Amino acid sequence: MKFLYRLKFVVVCLSVFLIIISCSDMINRYRLAEPDAGQATRGKEFFVSFQENPVMNTGNPYEISLLISGDYNTTGQVVVPGLSFTQAYSVSAHGVARVTFGRTVRVASSDVVEDLGIHVTASQPVVVCGLNYEQGTSDSFLALPVQSCGTEYYVMDYQSYILMSGSSFTVVGLADATTVAITPTVTSGSRTAGIAYSISMNRGQTYRLCDLAATGDMTGTHIVSDKPVAVFSGNTLAFVPAGTSYGDHLTEQLVPVAAWETRYRLVPLMGRTADTVRILAASDGTVVSWNGSPVATLNAGQFYEGVLTANAVVTADHPVLAAHYAQGSQSVNPPTNTGDPFMALVPMTWQFRTQYSFCAPHADFPDNYVNLIVPATAVSGMLLDGAAISPSLFSSIDGDYYWARVSVTEGNHLVSGPQKFGLIMYGYGYNDSYGNAGG
C-alpha cells in the first residue's frame, strides 16, 4: 500500500510538473505571438513599396533601404521577384538590420501593374521602416504587417509641385486574383476624377496612379478591394504649404479605414515655427474639432488642413485619419536651410507600445528627434537607451497624456516606458528631412 501511495504521489508530481512546463511554453509562445494579434505594427510578413523620388543628378548620393528591428533575435528574408532580388538578414534584439536596393525598385510608372512589390518575412515579429533618400529630397515610412492591412482606404497626400509629376498612390497586392476598385480625385491619363474603375492584381504586384499634370492632389481617392491590400501614398516633390520653398519627397503606408480613430494628440516638431496638419474623413457629416472647438464638417474623402503652432487635441464624431507635415525650410521664421517637408501619420492608440527600437538613419540628417506622447502616470519612468528622460521635458496635452521632444544622435536607439506610449521619429538635413511614426 505504501508503495502504491508513493507511486501515486510521484505520478501527481510529474503531472503537475508537466502542466507547469506546458503552461510556461504556452505563455512564452503567446508572448512571442502577441505583436501579431489584431491591429499591429509588428509582424512576420510585410509587402512594401517605394515610390518615385526625383533624381536631380544621377551622381547624387541616394539610399533606398528597409530598416528592420524587433524585440527578439531574428532572421528573415527580403525578396523582390520582379527584380530577381533576394537578401537574407539577421538582427539582434533591439538592433536594426538594413537592407538596401538600387533605384530600379522604385515604382515610377502610372496606371501600370508591375512586379515591384517587396516581400519581407521574419522568424519573429519585427518592425519595418522604409527610407527613400535622395540627396535634397527624402522621406521615410512605417510599414504595416499583412495582418494590419485592409480592404478600404482613403488616400492621404499633398498637392503636386508643377515642375514634377507628383501626387500619387501605390497599391500592393497581398493575394492572387485581387480586384481593386479606385475612384481618383485627380484625372490622370484615361482615369477620370470621380469615376470609379477596377484593376486586377496578384500577390506582390504593384499598381501606381500618378498626377501626370502635376497640378492636383490625390488626397481623398477611395480604394476598395475584395481582398486585403497594402497602400502607399505620397508625392514625388511637394511644397508644404503650397507655393513655399523648398519641395521634398513625401511617403507613408496608409492605415485602412477600419483602424482609424476619433482622437489624435498633436505635438509640434522641434525647431519649426509651424507645422501643417490634415484630418481626412471616411463618413459624410464628420464633425472635426480642434481643442474642443469645431473647425470643419467633412464628407467622405474630404479633409481639413490646419496649422499647428502648439500642442493640440483633434477629435471627430466619426473615425478620421490625421497626418503631420513638416513645412518647407523657407516657411520657417526666420527662413533656414535646415529641414524640408515630410509626411508622418499621427500615431493611433492601437499603435502605442512600451518600447521602440529605431534608427536615426543617415549622416545627411544631423538633427534627429523623437516626439513622445506618454500617459501622465508613466512620465517618470521613460528611458532613452537605458538612461532616464528628465520629467522636466514633459508638458501636459490634455491631462491624461504628456508630451516631450527629445534629441537623438545618428544610429540605433531604444525608447521605453512603463506604459504604452506614442512616438514619431524625424530628422533634418540641408533642405531635406524624413519622418514617420514608431512601430
Question: What can be said about this structure in brief?
Answer:
This protein has 439 residues and is mostly beta strands. The chain has one helix and 32 strands.
Shape: globular
Q: Which regions contain 5 or more consecutive residues with pLDDT less than 50?
A: 1-38
* Computed Rg: 23 Å
Distance between the termini: 62 Å
Structural class: mainly beta
What kind of assembly state do the chains in view correspond to? single chain
Beta-strand proportion = over 45%
| Average pLDDT for all residues | 91
Treating each run of at least 4 consecutive H or I residues as one helix, how many helices? 1
Helix content: under 10%
- Number-wise, the strands total 32
Number of domains: 1
Major sheet size, sense and barrel closure? 8 strands, antiparallel
Task: Please specify the SSE layout and strand pairing.
Blueprint (H helix, E strand, L loop, with lengths): L1 H32 L9 E6 L1 E2 L10 E8 L4 E7 L4 E7 L4 E6 L4 E2 L4 E3 L3 E17 L2 E6 L7 E5 L12 E7 L4 E6 L13 E5 L4 E5 L11 E17 L9 E6 L7 E6 L8 E7 L4 E5 L2 E6 L4 E6 L3 E14 L17 E3 L7 E8 L6 E9 L7 E2 L2 E2 L6 E2 L4 E8 L2 E19 L2 E6 L2
Parallel strand pairs: 2-7
Antiparallel strand pairs: 1-9, 3-6, 3-9, 4-5, 4-9, 8-15, 9-10, 11-16, 12-15, 12-16, 13-14, 13-16, 16-17, 18-23, 19-22, 19-23, 20-21, 20-23, 23-24, 25-31, 26-30, 26-31, 27-28, 27-31, 29-30, 31-32
